[in-house]
Amino acid sequence: MKTLDDLLAEGVEGRRVLVRADLNVPLDGNKITDDGRIRAVLPTVRALSEAGARVIVVSHLGRPKGAPDPKYSLEPVAARLGELLDRPIAFATDTVGESAKSVAASLASGDVALLENLRFNAGETSKDEAERGAFADELAALAEAYVDDAFGAVHRKHASVYDVAARLPHFAGGLVLRELEVLGKLTGQPDRPYVVVLGGSKVSDKLAVIEALLPKVDKLLVGGGMCFTFLKAQGHEVGKSLLEADMIDTCRDLLDRAAGRIVLPVDVVAASAFAADADHDVVPADGIPADRLGLDIGPDSVALFAEALAGARTVFWNGPMGVFELAPFAAGTRGVAEAITKVDGFTVVGGGDSAAAVRTLGLDEEAFGHISTGGGASLEYLEGKTLPGVAALEQ
Ligand SMILES: Nc1ncnc2c1ncn2[C@@H]1O[C@H](COP(=O)(O)OP(=O)(O)O)[C@@H](O)[C@H]1O
Ligand SMILES: O=C(OP(=O)(O)O)[C@H](O)COP(=O)(O)O
């Protein structure tokens, strides 16, 4: 795999370099609540800019539906990137249209541009190879070399992650290399007990991973939006909680095969609405009222999870235990995160929101062995899957 250092050694003065970053940061309106993913890619952007490249950064933000949606504009990210780099950033209001072309053409050596959200274009995430390829052609036409430093998106077979690499000389950025190196420690023979903690809201993505991960781990603790499909599979009512109805049978099968290694919450903070000021109570996990939704794990669950973590030698955590962005539902995430910081072993937390939770809840970042920018990407890597973005860089 060629790397950014190889590209820098070739010389980039005056060359247009397309940098795929994962700038999918959490937003509250248009305010960035955690800029960790922007900071993570700064060394790459800075190195290219200082070497005289014309740097064109691209990223997705959220999951817009293949068309422009102002809610998911990268404009606030451009402003923050400019502040952190301490230089003006040219922002294109489209990704491969007139604005992007004119911004790319107007860059001088060392200049940095950010293009609008890749996912405003249906071709980016299309399952149709020709449609994806056509979009990748347009992206590739903007530059002469491609650097992938979007670790958080390397598990996606998307145009900017996969197809564009086949169209330009391609190089792995420092963030991607470092993440693969550190996470590699978990793919061999991790010290045991090996405990994985899963939560968050990308339920269908992550349920698919559990199957492959289960034989490798000693305990799998499931909280967040993930746990309700399992609770339902055990025959409990989950009210209006997040539920992946077509995965209930899969969860039942996983519970049967896990022989007690899957640990579920025993209590839940159930709320009348998805809002900070909603009525809420701690209820038993098998007693969620029909008109309520579970927005956090309860204190007994935190204690149960902490007990399972206490003797662990290796821990991987992805996905908040609750809606930590709203204060009444942050205790579960905080409690489990604190338990992980006390583990005497190698601990990794991965995922845009999980890493943001560590920082915004004021936990000690140094107490974790590694904070990864990728949740789904880390999980699929741990699962032993070939990640499309990595495969594309290797070809
Ligand atoms: N019980 C729940 N119901 C709905 N959303 C939840 C619940 N628990 C956690 N979440 C949400 O999950 C989101 C993060 O999920 P995800 O993207 O899977 O994690 P990560 O970015 O760390 O990989 C957070 O925004 C959080 O509010
Ligand atoms: O936030 C991300 O992943 P994560 O929530 O698994 O950490 C990445 O930006 C990938 O986003 P996606 O899951 O919408 O493809």
Structural commentary:
With 395 residues, the chain is of the alpha/beta class. The chain has 2 domains: 4-179 and 389-394, Phosphoglycerate kinase, N-terminal domain (Rossmann fold, 3-Layer(aba) Sandwich); 192-344, Phosphoglycerate kinase, N-terminal domain (Rossmann fold), CATH 3.40.50.1260. The protein has 15 helices and 17 strands. The strands form 4 sheets. A 6-stranded parallel beta sheet has the order 5-6-4-1-7-8, with helices on both faces. Strands 11-10-9-15-16-17 form a 6-stranded parallel beta sheet, sandwiched between helices. A 3-stranded antiparallel beta sheet has the order 13-12-14. α2 crosses α3 (75-85) and α9 packs across α10 (248-258). The longest helix is centred in the N-terminal third of the chain and has 15 residues, at 36-50. The N and C termini lie close together (8 Å). The mean pLDDT is 97. Bound molecules: adenosine-5'-diphosphate and 1,3-bisphosphoglyceric acid. 1,3-bisphosphoglyceric acid binds next to loops. 1,3-bisphosphoglyceric acid binds at residues 22, 24, 63, 152-153, 156, 202, 351-352, 374-376.
State the main characteristics.
alpha/beta; Rossmann fold; six-stranded parallel beta sheet; 15 helices; 37% helix; binds adenosine-5'-diphosphate; binds 1,3-bisphosphoglyceric acid; Phosphoglycerate_kinase
Write the layout of secondary structure elements.
Elements (H helix, E strand, L loop, with lengths): L3 H7 L5 E5 L6 E2 L2 E2 L3 H15 L3 E5 L16 H11 L3 E4 L5 H9 L5 E4 L6 H4 L3 H12 L4 E4 L21 E3 L1 H14 L6 E5 L4 H11 L5 E4 L4 H7 L14 H11 L3 E2 L3 E5 L8 E5 L8 E5 L1 H12 L3 E5 L12 H11 L4 E5 L1 H9 L9 E3 L3 H7 L5 H7 L1
